């Protein structure tokens, strides 16, 4: 039993590398679409890599190993789980009007402050809220992209995508119930 915590750390490291690798591609890709998208892409990257235990993706990798698979094959699915969690946190921070997460300003606060400091017209608060929603949605979309990179046969990938769709539905339903 003493080997399990060490193995969990190994799996968490695999997820961390997978997240960095994914974001190394997606961050500049989004930023290259237009210079004004660079702050949003950077915010998502910093938010994802800014902390977290990675427990959800580690459990996915561990479950795949228990079923006889190689954890390395499903690291992208673990990345997808972490990106879905990021989406939920970004939206939850906005819903709860949280001002900090993991020792830094929440996304809506950071973009509110960016808007105000830039002297742009319109509501800084509305801008920050809109950007937090859109960056959360970006994490949601990236989760699909990451999942589709899992190294499993097409049938398993399709079954995984169906299960992931149900999971996303349940996460959003839970958020709605929390608001209610």
Features:
7 helices, 180 residues, mainly alpha, 77% helix, 2% strand
Short description, anyone?
The protein is an all-alpha fold and 180 residues long. It is built from 7 helices and 2 strands; from the N terminus they run ααααββααα.
Describe this structure in words.
With 180 residues, the protein is mostly helical. It is built from seven helices and two strands; from the N terminus they run ααααββααα. The chain has a two-stranded antiparallel ribbon. The termini are far apart.
Q: Note the main sheet.
A: 2 strands, antiparallel
- Low-pLDDT ranges: none
- Compressed to H and E, one letter per element, the order equals HHHHEEHHH
> Could you tell me how far the N terminus lies from the C terminus, measured between alpha carbons in angstroms?
42 Å
Helix amount, in percent? over 70%
**Major sheet strand order:** 1-2
Tally the helices: 7
What proportion strand?
A: under 5%
Topology overview:
Blueprint: H1 3-33, H2 38-49, H3 55-66, H4 75-95, E1 100-101, E2 104-105, H5 107-118, H6 124-147, H7 154-179
Antiparallel strand pairs: 1-2
């Amino acid at each position: 039993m003493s080997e399990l915590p060490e193995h969990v750390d190994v799996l968490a490291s695999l997820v961390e590398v997978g997240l960095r690798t994914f974001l190394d591609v997606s961050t500049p890709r989004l930023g290259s679409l237009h210079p004004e998208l660079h702050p949003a892409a950077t915010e998502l990257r910093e938010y994802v890599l800014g902390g977290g235990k990675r427990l959800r993706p580690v459990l996915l990798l561990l479950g795949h190993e228990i079923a006889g698979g190689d954890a390395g094959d499903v690291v992208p699915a673990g990345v997808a789980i972490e990106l879905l969690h990021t989406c939920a946190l970004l939206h939850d921070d906005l819903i709860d009007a949280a001002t900090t997460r993991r020792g830094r300003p929440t996304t809506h606060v950071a973009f509110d402050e960016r808007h105000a400091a830039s002297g742009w017209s319109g509501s800084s608060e509305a801008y920050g809220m809109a950007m937090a929603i859109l960056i959360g949605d970006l994490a949601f979309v990236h989760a699909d992209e990451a999942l589709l990179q899992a190294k499993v046969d097409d049938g398993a990938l399709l079954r995984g995508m169906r299960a992931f769709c149900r999971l996303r539905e349940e996460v959003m339903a839970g958020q709605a119930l929390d608001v209610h």
